[in-house]
């Protein structure tokens, strides 16, 4: 058992028979009344995000999850095929489980797969990827007085906003957590 005071982003626990992962944590001490903990938590089986309030010191059951590095191989219909880097076993994971990270998976790149008792719970792409710009409009000189941006489709399939000077075929670095352009890769 773990106290709700000790929960931090990334901590996994069981509450009401469901597996949860803390995404945001806030300890609140109001001027009047007891302190409490406000947590934004994600259901590891369904992906639903819920904001809950717990009393300070309330106990929840802590669980151990294992984060494994797996290589993304290819997409097979509605599933993504990953290979465990240690055992070389291949796993077919549904696109619902991969979620929004699917737009940032590049073939032959590594991803972090969260496993609990041999059940795959979550797939996270690396925080940063270097990827080719597949489609974007040409940036015309004099389009804006100061820096602007335009949409671009990257090789992994996601659409992100890039500066006007980025052209098709260029390699860029992208932050997969929020889909931001970071820099051009030489």
Question: What does the model show?
Answer:
This protein has three domains: 2-62, SH3 type barrels (Roll), CATH 2.30.30.30; 66-124, Nucleic acid-binding proteins (OB fold (Dihydrolipoamide Acetyltransferase, E2P)); 128-184, Beta Barrel (OB fold (Dihydrolipoamide Acetyltransferase, E2P)), CATH 2.40.50.140. It is 2% helix and 54% strand. It has one helix at residues 95-98; strands at 2-3, 12-15, 18-28, 36-43, 49-55, 59-62, 66-76, 79-84, 90-94, 110-116, 119-124, 128-136, 149-154, 159-163, 171-175, 180-184. The radius of gyration is 20 Å and the shape is flat. The protein starts with a strand and ends with a strand.
Q: How many domains in all?
A: 3
Q: Which structural class fits the helix and strand makeup? A: mainly beta
Strand content: over 45%
What strand line-up does the widest sheet have? 1-6-2-3-4-5
Q: Can you tell me the residue ranges where pLDDT is under 50 for at least 5 consecutive residues?
A: none
Give me the number of helical elements. Answer: 1
Rg (CA only)? 20 Å
Mean pLDDT: 88
- Portion in helices: under 10%
The biggest beta sheet is recorded as: 6 strands, antiparallel
The fold-level CATH name of the largest domain is SH3 type barrels
At CATH's second level, what is the architecture of the largest domain?
A: Roll
The global form is flat
Can you tag this structure with a few keywords?
single chain; mainly beta; OB fold (Dihydrolipoamide Acetyltransferase, E2P); 3 domains; five-stranded antiparallel β-sheet; 16 strands; flat
